[in-house]
Design a protein that fits this description.
37% of the residues lie in helices and 20% in strands. The protein is an alpha/beta fold.
């Protein structure tokens, strides 16, 4: 039995990524005709057309879609095996790492992360990119090094590791009626609330939990970030419901309390592309992020909410 040509794996990875013979040829520095011959060999080896004509372009067959999810990881693992190991000199490291995350993470964790990075590698800079989208291609194309947040649909090629779990709490100005006495579901629902939603939604999990108790809160305004909600609550009688870990510093001087209803905790994770698994600088960066996220601020402590009977 003839052994398969493993070089075809690299061509297959590029072809399925680009979806174009011409673009694949350009990436591999081949002529379009040579790339077409390679595609013909791949079709013969797999027994599938892989890419078929649709209008002026090419579309992947179901078999090609299945292979796309596997061949990328095989190629990346092969590249990692053949990459020489090097010792990392942090004091001379000169790089810019891009982290995609939301504003709350930047405000709460970025100062400590920058200090942690600078202590080891003064030549390293961090760039924090906004979470305008969650496309996996930004990871694969090296547009970002780490994606930090609540993980959604990531695809099989993305590495993911949990950093911390966060719960929602309430925050009001000092002297607010809710700053004294037990915060019952009725007292909480009776106040005027700020809703935080990047998509402008008025209701969410908190409203669903209140609805289960036959209660409904009054939302008087909606903002896109937790910092804006806290800034408004700090100077008014409005109530902000925010994630505890992400807003510890921003809530300084305010009264915080556990929500009187049970809502699901959220898991904050970091995501990266597997091609960066073995990179020493990337491994060090991930260690720094894990270390900073594991540390707690000791000065702010919100008791756990009472368990539902």
């Amino acid at each position: 039995m003839t052994s398969p040509d493993l070089n075809l794996l690299f061509a297959l990875d590029v072809l399925l990524t680009e979806g174009s013979v011409a673009r694949a040829a350009s990436r591999l520095r081949l002529s379009p005709s040579a790339m077409s011959r390679t595609l013909a060999r791949l079709r013969e080896a797999t027994g599938d057309p892989l890419l078929v004509r649709a209008g002026r372009g090419l579309v992947a067959t179901p078999r090609a879609e299945e292979l796309r999810r596997q061949v990328g990881r095989v190629v990346q693992d092969a590249e990692a095996l053949l990459r020489p190991a090097t010792l990392l000199d942090l004091r001379s490291l000169d790089r810019v790492f891009t982290l995609r995350t939301n504003e709350s993470f930047v405000e709460e964790f970025a100062p400590r992360l920058v200090a942690r990075i600078q202590a080891d590698a003064p030549g390293v800079r961090l760039r924090f990119a906004p979470k305008s989208d969650k496309d996996v291609m930004s990871l694969r194309d090296a547009a970002i090094d780490l994606d930090i947040g609540v993980a959604g649909e990531t695809g099989p090629e993305v590495r993911i590791q949990a950093l911390l779990r966060d719960r929602f709490i309430g925050a009001v100005r000092t002297g607010h009626p809710l700053s004294g006495g037990a915060v019952t579901p009725e007292r909480y629902a009776a106040g005027r609330h700020i809703s935080v939603s990047r998509r402008g939604r008025e209701k969410g999990p908190i409203d669903e939990a209140l609805s289960g108790l036959g209660l409904q809160r009054t939302v008087v305004c909606m903002v896109s970030g937790f910092s804006a909600a806290l800034a408004m609550a700090r100077t008014s009688d409005l109530i902000a419901s925010v994630p505890e870990r992400h807003t510890e510093g921003a809530r300084a001087g305010m009264h915080s309390f556990p929500l009187p209803v049970v809502t699901a905790e959220v898991t904050i994770s970091m995501l990266w592309h597997p091609r960066l698994d073995a990179d020493p600088a990337q491994c060090w960066l991930r260690d720094c992020v894990r270390e900073v996220c594991a540390a707690r601020r000791p000065e702010i402590n919100v008791p756990s909410p009472p368990r539902a009977p």
